[in-house]
Amino acid sequence: MPKVGIIFNDNKPTACSVAQELQEQLQSSGFTVVVETGSGGLLGYSQPDRPICHTRIEHLTPPHFDESMPFAIVLGGDGTVLSAFRQLAPLGIPLLTINTGHMGFLTEIYLNQLPTAIEQLINGDYQIESRSMMTVQLMRGETLLWEALSLNEMVLHREPLTSMCHFEIQVGYHASVDIAADGIIVSTPTGSTAYSLSAGGPVVTPDVPVFQLAPICPHSLASRALVFSDLEPVTIFPATPNRMVLVVDGNGGCYVLPEDRVYLSKSPYAAKFIRLQTPEFFRILREKLGWGLPHIAKPTSVELP
Fold first, then answer.
1. Domain boundary residue among 102, 125, 148?
2. Model pTM?
3. Does 198 count as an annotated binding residue?
4. CA 76 from centre of chain
5. Is 101 known as a binding-site position?
6. Which residue among 10, 78, 230, 260 is the active-site one?
7. Catalytic-residue membership of 49
8. pLDDT digits (tens, 9 = 90+) for 172-206
9. 3-class secondary structure, 122
């Protein structure tokens, strides 16, 4: 009997009720169903006096989920989707993402499409789209203090108040550069439509194997977003005497001291999205962000003399 999984946002009553209904439906169709909340993929925050405070990437997998599962279903918004991939990407389980939140940029369908979607899922009538993820690590000397798996982005900035900082950044084996800005964003192609977009970075289609570096409010006309191969790791040294904060996917992170360094690299794990129709990224941009909509001036109906 095949085993499948459900991950849901237990803070949303709709997601809770739909999860229970889905579990019963799948069980009646002959599946063994394991259910878990998205809270297991939430990242914790380390403290300056207790910096080594994290769960290793491979240890976020919830109990009873394994590589044999043909698919799992996620019920929630974008935050739940991000959390679910942190939990299940190391197992390579494809996820059908169902929007019970607001924007739902990362979700595949809405609740009113659920009956048809489940039928397609059971019949194997779907495609799998793989998207790259990023490994984020905080190092102090040779000691790993904190790490996380990221589908969107890593942000490094000053706290508690926004102010100018200096960052020494090395991409691959290229010469290091100094950037003065309020913060630094390094994103995947999926993350190019998240915080990086708000910071002025370009949109990158999900199939392009790149990372993107975007300064937040840079203090130079020459400091602009940079797109480069995701085969090249990134090392960031905080070239400032002040403590900073590192945040991954807008969820959790840790403090970064002047003697630390942040190391970023392409993860060996991919986020596998179940697509019920051929992936069409421009359609999502149009529907969710309004990109490419026609702007047509309509003539006035008032007769002029």
1. 125
2. 0.90
3. yes
4. 14
5. no
6. 78
7. no
8. 999 999 999 999 999 999 999 999 999 999 999 99
9. helix
